[in-house]
Structures are given as structure tokens and as C-alpha cells.
């Protein structure tokens, strides 16, 4: 392209819409196995620990890949990374669909490892979160980032809750195999939507058009861009890793976003086994928790713009700790569901506050910080389900309650660490 012919592609609103829609489809993999865990467990003869690992498998790649791919936005702008992750996710779902079409339900013996592998591939779409966070951060001014990131994370993550109910309905209406075939088609449609709608922030478009570093920054600033990358992927990760608040935000996000992913995948099992509800009923309650926790990031981000991310973070963690303690009590499923709603609001507000604080504390390496925080934070979605499964295996009567107390203890620990690392340090 001749530099004199340069025309900016897209707008902040278009970039936000593309990232949100892309992540909406990619994040569906959070609920890939949760609603079908009982059926797969029966078909393959799995233990509670193996069920927990299966439910968590998509979150393994969906969390760890956020680290390098989030940092890659500081180099390529994000569009290339996002497209790659969505393509791999589609490949994983095609593999699962083909496997289930030929082997489910009577010929699944010995295929547990393969199902785990394909689940990990399908989970790559979850990793688009850190790519989208960085893309949106570079497009929007600082004063607008709380709302924009809350909109992106809230509406995007809501798909996990939608699928928590949608998959049981597909199973009831079309059967096990067709349900995964339809899910594969939906994921492919989402990948294509992002491919055609997405656009990088002005600086990255200017660099690709051949402008120099200095000229690209100047012209992008004239177009309204306020944040700029610090260097390559290694520099981005190194700079962000050297800032203490990055690791405080990792721990906080590990508890509430990792907890959100884990409970979205685990709640169908909890409502059915611990409370004796049907699969559809369990799917409805899981969907309410998951969608509400996701959507609360939108008002949570807006409130964080006004009050500051630290205040919102502390209030949300306190509410999360109290609600998790109540979830360990025998309140009956209606009472526990009401408490889970409060917990969902608390998780959503805290997740929005964390995203708001990334460009506050790590201005020169938003991509790298998004990778560390989004990746290691979301890793809780892989760590927690096997732990929950093991607690239930150790004590079928009390194990579920112990799991919620674990989240309460982590929330209190985060409050203490953040107080000394953010409030007192400031």
C-alpha cells in the first residue's frame, strides 16, 4: 500500500463489536462438557476426579494460551492472533463431532485421553479474551475503557451460560451427536463473523502500511489512540511481569474469573448431584449464574470508571466471600440459588474492576499484562473443577460445601494482599 493512500479501517465501536462477538462464540467452550459430564462419565466409566478434569479441559488451553497471545497483540495488533485461536477451536470441535458420531455411546472405552485433547483444542477460543482485551484497550481512551472492557467481557462471556442451558436443550431435541454437530457449526459461524468484521487499532494499521514508528504513533494519537505497545512479545511480558500489581491482579482474577469458569462448568453437576435437580433445571440455574456474572461486568466497568477499580474490587471481593460462605450451608436449592445470584454479581463486578486496573497500573504493556492476568487468572477454571471433584470424592455429603468455603478463603486472602499491595503502597 502507498502511504499516501492510507485510510483507517474501522472504528472503536466496530472493533468492540467484532471482539465481543468473536469472544462470545469462543467462550462457549467453557460449557463444552459440563452439561454432558454425566453422560460421558457413564459412557467412559469415569471417576469424580476424571469428570472434573474433563469439565476443566477446555480451560487449560483457554487460560494458558492467553499469556503469549495476549502479549502478541503488542506486536501484530491482535487480529491475526484472534483468527488463529478461533480456527484451532473449530478444528477441535470438528474432531469431537466426528469422534462422537462414530463412537458414542457404546465404543468410547479408551478414548478419554483423546476427548481431553480435543477439548483442549476447542478451548483455544476461550483464549481470545486476552487478545480482545488488548485490542479494545488500544482502540478506546482511558476514561472510556472501564465501560468498553466491561461490555466486551460481559457480553462475550455470557455465551458460556447460554450454552449451559442450550446444550441440554439441544441434547433433548436433537440427541447427543447432533448437539455437538450444531455446536461446531455455530463456532464456525462465529469465526467467520470475526474474520470479516474485525480491525486493528490505528497504530498497528499505520505500521502495517509502512509508516515509521514515530510517525505511526503521532498519526494514531491524532486519531484518538492513547495507549501504545512497549516492544515485542518478550518485552511486553517482561515489563508487565516486573510490576507488582500485575501479580496482585492475577491472584484476584484467579479467584473470581477462574471461579466463574469453574462454577459455570461445575454447577450442572452440583445442582443435579447435591440438590437432586433435573438436567434442564440444573441448566437453567447454571445459565442464570453464568449470564448474570458475565453481564454484571458491564455496569461493573462503568461504576469502576466513576469510583475507581480498587474500591469496586474490594466491595466485590467482600460480597463474594460472604456469599460463598452461605453457599456452604444447607439452605435448600431455592435459597442456594438466591445466594448464587449474589455471588454472580460479586464475581462480575470484580472481573470488570480488574480489567479496568490493567491500563491503570501497566500502561506501557497492556498486552503483556492482559496475557498474564487473563491467562493465569483464567487458569483457575482448570484448577478448580478437579479440586471440587476430589473434595466430593473424599466426602460426598460435605465436599460441595468445602468447595465454596475454598472460594471464600481465597477472596479474603485477595483482599488482604490487595490492601497492602495497592492501597498501602499507593
Automatic annotation (TrEMBL):
Parts of the chain that traverse the membrane: 81-100, 112-134, 146-171, 177-197, 247-267, 279-298, 310-329, 335-354, 366-388, 400-420
Main localization category: membrane
Keywords, alphabetical: Membrane, Nitrate assimilation, Transmembrane, Transmembrane helix
Occurrences of domain Major facilitator superfamily (MFS) profile (ranges): 15-426
Membrane topology listed for this record: Multi-pass membrane protein
Compartments (UniProt record): Membrane
Keyword Glycoprotein on entry: no
Database matches in InterPro entries: MFS, MFS_dom, MFS_trans_sf, NO3_transporter
Family note: Belongs to the major facilitator superfamily. Nitrate/nitrite porter (TC 2.A.1.8) family.
Record protein name field: MFS transporter
Organism: Mesosutterella porci
